[in-house]
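## retry 2 of 3
previous attempt timed out at serialization; input unchanged, resubmitting
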Amino acid sequence: MIKAIVFDVDDTLYDLSGPFKEAFHELYPLEELDLEGAFLASRRYSDSVYAKSLSGEMSMEDMYVYRFQNAFHDYGKNMDAQEALHFQEIYEKHQHMIHMTEAMQEFLKELSDKMVLGIITNGPSGHQWDKIRALEATRWIPKDHVFISGEHGVAKPERRIFELVQEKLKLQPQEFCYVGDSYENDMEGAKGAGWNAIWYNHRNHRPTGSAEPDYMVRSEKELLELLSLVASGKEHCISHIFLIK
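## retry succeeded, writing output
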């Protein structure tokens, strides 16, 4: 029986592409670019070197430069290092203005009365806490149920960060359900730890590994419908459209 639902933050509790697109329009109001493509590319480049930035092999500034220079170059725009860091600065400013949808807020309010809720997110401590505060997520998710990779020195998809949550909440792996958008970090990580997993695949990615999430949804509406059934213990009522196997 599932007793705890744990969420990713970026592109799960809010739309991560919004601040990215807003930052671009602020800095380059007259330029046209495939911003959805550039955003997804920046995520891929960021994920590819995140472990190095966490270990100190690459500084966070170098990681920002790497991801934005390469992502924008892929879509025909060149940036020098200073310009990439300025883009990161404006991007962070817009990330301080993020919000959940009203539907997600209402759902978390209802869910918090039924289930144990938590967060596992990759990133620097201060940066991720700024997002969590902007989202007001701790209205429903206790602060001590929030696990940020930068605070623990271990990041998704490594099994250890999931085990830290298990130890804190005193639950068994099969009693957890993890919700995230990243196949590599979220699905590989959660399934590797023995958790149930819901792939919030709202950007229509293809699997890139061997993990087998229990369910997949492609919209917030589907996600909330599925979580309602999970929280009510009605897994047997879940439609075949959510099954990924």
